Amino acid sequence: MDTYNTVERVIAVLVAYKWRFLFTFLITFFVTLTLLSAIGFVPESIDEEYDFSAPSVETTSKTDDAPARSTGIVEQPVRIIIPSIGINSRVRNPVSRDIATLDTALLSGVVRYPGSSKLGESGNMLLFGHSSYLPVVNNQNYKAFNGIQKLMKGDQVLVQSEGLEYVYRVTSVRKTDASEALIDLRKDGSSRLTLSTCNSFGSASERFIVEADFVGSYPIAS
Questions:
Q1: What fold characterizes domain 57-219?
Q2: Cβ count within 10 A of residue 113
Q3: Cα–Cα distance between 72 and 120 in angstroms, integer?
């Protein structure tokens, strides 16, 4: 009889305090979720602009036999696509070379180094971006240049303006220290592309350098 009464009392307490338990649980859940999000442990959904699907037939069918087209128009790059390693990222074009300005631009995409060549212009265009291999990355732009060290000689790199796609072909991939990564930005007669990945443009850390030569430009397939 005592056991029965004890069970009844326990049930009565649970019923009486169920809303308090539920309220405490919900508060604890939302506080925990907010803290995890603040420190970057809640994955962010990838922007629909990032299309990591297989490239279209028009993109993969471009070969050295296709007629190269250079319009003579100088344009800013707005997107870089590297089909072989699944890179598809926006390109930012800041004016200032201030390190703080460049670091801020890196938070929203790949960056063209101010003063390096633009699309349709002779010389070397330098694009740099973050790489991160952490299991959870809240800002996907920290992974903008993941895997460029895996590129092989002959791989395509596609850089888009608003209306044209400029095709480059990889000529070399190397690992170097920032203090030794001297990149020639002289505007000579050739058109080429250099990719660099680092966590902060001003840091003295190891980085990968990819160099590519211009092949031709083509209208972006609609």
A1: Sortase; Chain: A; (2.40.260)
A2: 20
A3: 6
